Amino acid sequence: MEKGLGALPVVSEFTRRLDLAGIVDEVCPGGASAHVTHGQVIEVLVASQLTAPAPLVRVGDWARSWAVEEVFGIEADLLNDDRLAGALDAIAPHLERIAGTVGARAIGEFGIDVAQHNRRVAALIQIICLALLVFCLIERRVRRALGPEQTMAGLYPDNRCIRPTGRMIFYHLGELALRIGTISDPPTVQITRGVQLHLLHLLDLLDTGIGQIRWPQT
After folding, report:
1. What is the pLDDT of residues 150-170, one digit of tens each?
2. In DSSP terms, which residues pair with 190 in a beta bridge?
3. Considering only CA atoms, which of 129, 195, 189, 125 is closest in space to residue 158?
4. Cα–Cα distance between 52 and 69 in angstroms, integer?
5. Residue whose C-alpha is closest to residue 87's, from 133, 43, 126, 118
6. pTM for the predicted model, two decimal places
7. What's the CA gap between 176 and 200, in Å, rounded?
């Protein structure tokens, strides 16, 4: 059996130095009765967004295929949707305090110059949050357009039907290219695989507004 490792040990080391789980548990006590504390859940959610960014559902499935138990000491079965929702509900009223405390820890632990970087770090955090929001909305739009089963073929080489994730959607659309046009030859969006056309259709973007969609000429 093999599990994904990626940057999990790196993320774990940095969240440990930030005392992320400890800070969350201090601000939001009471999660230990569920065998895993609120802080531990939030720490794993941070790791999931850095290693396999996707909406915060089915995190347990991700944890089973990645070395989460080996790195963070948390069994995948404990990371069900209800437990995640409980942790998110617990931190929701305390986000400003948690962010401020973790930020102060980062300043002390990593020697950040507060006067120079504090506002810039806050701005970057907001940009990351906005990017994740757009990421989640795109995945939601594709899945809803697929209907009740929310599965499609063409995302993997073996053509099996699976639920598309935001990461898969961006991977396939990332290979789209724009051929710059001229006065007599309008610009065209070059597609190389049918799955790209399917995704654009699901997103209701067959008319991209920047060029006609065409297969590249051979």
Report:
1. 899 988 888 889 888 888 888
2. 177, 214
3. 195
4. 16
5. 43
6. 0.64
7. 11
